[in-house]
Amino acid sequence: MPSYLVKVRKKMDIYSQRRSRNVLSGNYGSVFKGRSMDFDDLREYTYGDDVKDIDWKSTARSNKIMVRRYIAIRKHNILVVADNGRAMSTLAPSGETKGEVAAFCAGVIAYVAQRHGDLVGMVYGNKNSSKRYAMKEDTAYIENFLDKYAKSVSIDGDASDINSLLTYVTKSFRERMFIIVITDPTSAATVNRELIRRLNARHEQMYILIEDSPMTNNLISDQSVNDIEGDIRLPHYFRTNKKIAAAETQFRANQRELIAKGLRRFGIVSCSIDSTDHAIPRIFQMLEEQKHVRR
Q1: Where residue 131 falls among pLDDT bands split at 50, 70, 90?
Q2: Closest by alpha carbon to 263, among 191, 212, 182?
Q3: What is the model's pLDDT at position 133?
Q4: Which residue spans within 110-267 are E strands per DSSP?
Q5: Of the candidates 131, 134, 152, 162, which lies 20 to 30 Å from 171 by C-alpha distance?
Q6: Residue, of 53 and 269, whose pLDDT is higher
Q7: Which whole number is the average pLDDT over 3-30?
Q8: What residues contact 45, with CB distance under 8 A and at least 6 apart?
Q9: What is the pTM of this model?
Q10: Nearest to 12 by CA among 194, 245, 180
């Protein structure tokens, strides 16, 4: 079984705007920011901050309203929600399957959360089924469900349906969580807004979008290529046409921007990832953006 956690060596931080409310949590330093007696740093006031956290001396010195942040001492629940529909078995721009890239991204999130003492769980599924793993901090347990997810992605699997997966999450979890959704742009573009609102009422969310390989990808220019859904063979001349390549590049850029803009309306940050090589810096950038998002 490949170790997804040991592949991730770079330290990153996740910032949560809500403090943990789990009264049974232990005294572990958490990657999330919340209220405790341990002062962390100062930042400029944003809408929704507690006025009790305003540092008046720093405010007077800087002429900006500054609030204090504290290190949360309680564990948080991190839930990775991953699409394992057959579309995830197709190629990413790097030549890896989207499922491979998704599994690595899930490993990045799990690694960051685990090393800060937070609990990590997973839900993965498609149009007709879903699989749930409870939130724990055990390394072997986390490695197991990451491996199970990677193996569940198959070209013979059922179609993706991110709305069914998110509906399952809303019905199956009562505790407050930090949800990281991993899917591709095509599925993300279909997410129901009402579902997002319902999840936002209790949880915080981020989206990781695993990009599709372009039809004109040089890595597959000499290979036979079929569309995953319609089983339509793409002619070679079609995949080597420069005008088509330019049009496809523009379409994908517009699609990414449209999805990101739609999520930002709900205070949700996202990132697009095209390979395991680029996953860590792009997820890091997304987590930094989470520090400043306004819900």
Answers
A1: very high
A2: 191
A3: 95
A4: 119-125, 130-136, 178-183, 204-210
A5: 152
A6: 269
A7: 47
A8: 54, 64, 65, 66, 67
A9: 0.75
A10: 180
Residue indicated by tokens 């309306």? 265
Please state, in angstroms and rounded to a whole number, the distance separating the CA atoms of residues 176 and 20.
8
Give the start-to-end residue ranges of the domains of the chain: 39-70, 77-290
Q: Selecting from 3.40.50.410, 3.20.80.10, 3.30.450.20, 3.60.120.10, what CATH number does the domain 77-290 have?
A: 3.40.50.410
d(CA 242, CA 248): 10
CA distance 213 to 201: 35
Mean pLDDT score across all residues of the chain: 82
In this structure, what token pair is assigned to residue 60? 């007077």
Cβ pair 276, 104 in contact under 8 A: yes
Ranges of H-type helices in 73-211:
98-115, 139-152, 162-172, 185-188, 193-200
Answer for the pair 70, 38: CB distance below 8 angstroms, yes or no: yes
Q: Is 38 exposed, middle or buried (0-12, 13-18, 19+ CB in 10 A)?
A: exposed
Task: Scan for tokens 């995949």, then name that residue.
Answer: 239
Per-residue pLDDT at 251 exceeds 80: yes
AA letter at 289: E
Which of 27-41, 248-262, 277-291 has the highest average model confidence (pLDDT)? 248-262
Token readout for 197 is: 């609102």
- Please list, in sequence order, all residues whose beta carbon lies within 8 angstroms of the beta carbon of residue 95, skipping any fewer than 6 positions away: 213, 217, 219, 220
Residue 184 pLDDT exceeds 80: yes
- Residues 2, 161, 224, 272: is their CA dihedral positive or negative? negative
Whole-number Å distance between alpha carbons of 80 and 220: 31
Measured between alpha carbons, how far is 107 from 6 in angstroms, rounded to an integer?
9
End-to-end CA distance of the chain: 39
